[in-house]
Design brief:
The protein has helices at about 15-25, 45-50, 65-80, 90-105, 120-130, 140-150, 175-180, 200-210, 215, 230-240, 255, 275-285, 295-300, 315-325, 330-345, 350-369; strands spanning about 5-10, 35-40, 55-60, 85-90, 105-110, 135-140, 160, 190, 220-225, 245-250, 265, 290, 305-310. Helix 3 crosses helix 4 (about 90-105), helix 8 (about 200-210) packs parallel to helix 10 and helix 12 crosses helix 15. It has 2 domains: about 5-165 and about 345-369, Rossmann fold (3-Layer(aba) Sandwich), CATH 3.40.50.2000; about 175-345, Glycogen Phosphorylase B (Rossmann fold). By secondary structure, it is α/β, with parallel strands linked by helices. Helix 10 links the parallel strand 9 (about 220-225) and strand 10.
Amino acid sequence: MKRLRVVHFVEALGIGGLERVVQSLARLASPDYRIEVVGAVAGGRAADEIGASGTPVRILGLGGYYPPDVHRAARALKEMAPDVVHTHGHFAGVLGRAAGWWSGAPAMIHHLHTLDGTLTARHRSLERILARVTHRVVCCSRAVERHAVEVVGLPKHLTLTIYNGVDPPPAVSREEAQRLLGDPPRPVVGCVGALARHKGQEVLIRACALLPPDARAGTLVLVGEGPERPLLARVASESGLGGRVLFLGERTDARSLMPAFDLAVVPSLEREGLGLSAIEAMDAGCPLVASRLGGLTEVVEEGRTGLLVPAGDPVALSSAMRDLLARPERGRSLGILAHRRVETMFRSSQMVRRVEAVYEEALRERRAA
């Protein structure tokens, strides 16, 4: 039987939740599929890792989605002859679907990974136009699906929710994780994510400054890199926490550090389509406090697998953190239930099988047309 060819079309292949989802879709694909990955603009660490695993990766080096860019992308897709073009995010979704239509790709799937409030009227119009040549729009959460229908204006019959998933956690003990961190003073509060304004680390630092002295004497660990780092370092210093905040930068072993966290926090301010870092923290059994925002409300069951607080409110965040740090037995109970929830709902293998079922449905519809 002929293997079906799927091309994942992505803007760039650096580090982020979208790129990790694409990695899982490539690495865990059924033997019935032959996967290729296209980076429309640039490569990066994810491109290197995907290529090293044996999946072909092609970087086009394009700079926009004007007609010459679409033509170049269409030529590349024509050479690859995919059965399915699976685009990820707005930029790649416009460029990849236009090129897929031009090259005659049999089926096109678009994947939305975030609540993108930056889309202009022109961007939303392009999404609606390209919906006409799209077989299904996969959304990483019900919140993203609602946004796609109610804000972007996509037809409801095209959209469906498939939760992103993660692999089982690495087998790392709490003691090993503490050594990887350098045995910092406890309690350890951890936050994993790009140092960008919408990720909310400034709110977290200000919340930590409001903790009682015994908790404030611990360590805040920030795993990630980004443009906000100088500002965050300044806020930490001004808040009297300078020596208690560890900026670890990007870490390929971030999940191996999580067992050392006495508390994990996801303080996002906006754009949180689902929250892979929240899922990974839950998978590690960490007590979790997250913003009541977007897809995070579908990941965290309030009071059962973690606590939710209003986004951007350092007082509310500090109060929830203080509650869990003062009652470690409650935190452990939340962490146990959180891990079970990930096992049930957010495994990458489940995500991949559900996405592949969408491919099969789209191709059946194409053959029947």
